[in-house]
Structures are given as C-alpha cells and as structure tokens.
Design a protein that fits this description.
Distance between the termini: 36 Å
CATH topology: Rossmann fold
Shape: globular
Largest sheet: 7 strands, mixed
CATH class: Alpha Beta
Structural class: alpha/beta
Strand content: 15-25%
Helix content: 40-55%
Strand order of the largest sheet: 3-2-1-4-5-7-6
Order of helices and strands: HEHEHEEHEHHHEHHHE
Number of helices: 10
Length: 268
C-alpha cells in the first residue's frame, strides 16, 4: 500500500454508500441513457461497489444476463441485498485478472472505480479480453483534477489549510489522469476503438451541515479515511473550518455540484 492510498478504506459498504453511493445513484441513469445499449445484452460490471449502477442496468438496460464483480466482500454483500433478480449475480474478483473466458460479454462497464485500480492498463486489457467483438466497453470516473466533486474539494481545501501535508492525499493530485485527454489516452493505449468522451453533472444536496459532515467521519474513502485518522482536537478544528466556509441556504440546504467524465468505446 502506498503512503497516499493508506486512507482508501473500502471494506464497509454502508459507510461508502452514505459518503458516495447516494451521488453515484444519480449518475448511473444518465450514464446508461448516454450509453444507449439495446435490450437483451450480456453485461459485466467491473467494480460494482454497492450496486448503484447495477440496479440501473437491471431496471433500464433489460439485460439478458448481468454480473457484478468487486474485490470487496463488504460491497458485494450489500449489493446482493439491494439488487436482486434471476438475471443478475455478484461475485468477488479482481479487475486486473477477470475470472471469465474471452469474449463472454456484450457490454463491459466500470463506474467510479478505474482510478483506484493499481494497474489500470491491465484492467482495461482484461475488460477488452472478455468483451465480444463489436461489443461496448464504457466507464466513468469523477473529474478530480477539475475540482468536479465540489464537496470533496471543499473538504480538502479546509484540510490543507490546517495541514499542508494533506495535499498529497487529495484525489486531484493522486488521479491527474481523470480528464478528457487522460482518459482518451488510456482507452487508446488499450486499443479500444470509436472512443467518445462526455461529462455528466449532478447536484449534491445536503440537508444541513451535519448531513455534509457526518459521511466524512465514517472512514470509507480517502477523505473520510484522513478525517478519521485525525485526533479529536484536529478533527474538530477541521469541522469548524468547513462550517464557516460552506454556503448554507436559508432553508439549511447546502447545494454543490459533482461532475464525472464518461468514456464509451468499441472492441474490434
């Protein structure tokens, strides 16, 4: 584990769902609408997490069959509880060594996870291997370098002001390739064809400051992992700094934007 990834805690599915899953669910239908896949296809979702995209594929994509794979047993357990049906199954597995035969799926997708895979190139080659000729490979990641996830950016700006060393842990520094150009290059290097890239944006609306702050205390993900590592006094200083700097509407709501880059391609 690298020093910069030491706070990437992904074992607790419900904590992640509270932190990011609720926003992932807003992205998923927009991604599928853009993808435009016909009914009856065989789908593989690499890095299914807690099932945000899985549920939308099952409901909107009308798959012939569907498999969700993730390395986290906690995530798989929660996904199995949330997404059920005769056409879908979940299993624990590694994106860098997919446990499937070549040319097994019509559509291979990955949502908000590619940047966390140690060998992204290998993962894309594996996705290409298991995709049928003429099939679709598509994925999306948050726009970290562009400050696209505003609530994360607010958190790290406050954290770095109090602790300059926190800058090395922030996603914009760790994942500089999460841009239109960087993702296009990754897809090209994996010999994918007909590459298209678009951005998808959603509102992240927090009921009040506690709704904004509490997920950062749960430890699931880089920012919450960092927050949980702080001593109580430092954590309270960070909390108060964020409270002072966030814009709160008269009704108590905190509204921020979240933007992702989505990539769609085909296999020869």
């Amino acid at each position: 584990m690298s020093a910069n990834s030491r706070h990437d805690a992904w074992n607790t599915g419900e904590s992640y769902d509270r932190y990011m899953g609720r926003w992932s669910r807003q992205l998923a239908p927009r991604f599928l609408e853009w993808l435009g896949v016909k009914a009856g296809c065989d789908w593989l979702e690499v890095g299914c997490g807690t099932g945000a995209l899985s549920a939308e594929i099952l409901a909107r994509g009308k798959p012939g069959s569907q498999v969700g794979l993730d390395p986290s047993e906690g995530f798989i357990h929660l996904a199995m509880q949330k997404v059920e049906g005769p056409r879908i199954n979940f299993r624990v597995g590694d994106a860098q060594d997919l446990p499937f035969a070549a040319s097994s799926y019509d559509v291979v997708v990955s949502a908000l996870v590619l940047n966390f895979i140690p060998d992204r190139h290998k993962a894309l080659l594996e996705m290409r291997r298991v995709c049928r000729p003429g099939g679709i490979i598509a994925f999306y990641v948050w726009d970290y370098p562009g400050g696209g996830v505003e609530f994360m950016r607010k958190f790290w700006q406050a954290a770095i002001a109090l602790d300059p060393g926190a800058a090395d842990l922030a996603e914009n520094k760790r994942f500089p390739f999460c841009t239109r150009e960087g993702l296009t290059e990754m897809a090209q290097n994996a010999r994918l064809q007909s590459i298209e890239v678009t951005q998808i944006e959603v509102d992240t609306i927090f009921r009040d400051f506690d709704d904004f702050w509490q997920p950062f205390t749960l430890g699931a993900g880089p920012a919450p992992g960092y927050c949980s590592s702080l001593d109580p006094s430092s954590r309270e200083h960070l909390r108060e700094k964020l409270r002072q700097e966030l814009t709160v509407a008269e009704d108590g709501l905190i509204t921020l934007k979240a933007r992702a880059w989505a990539v769609r391609s085909r296999v020869d």
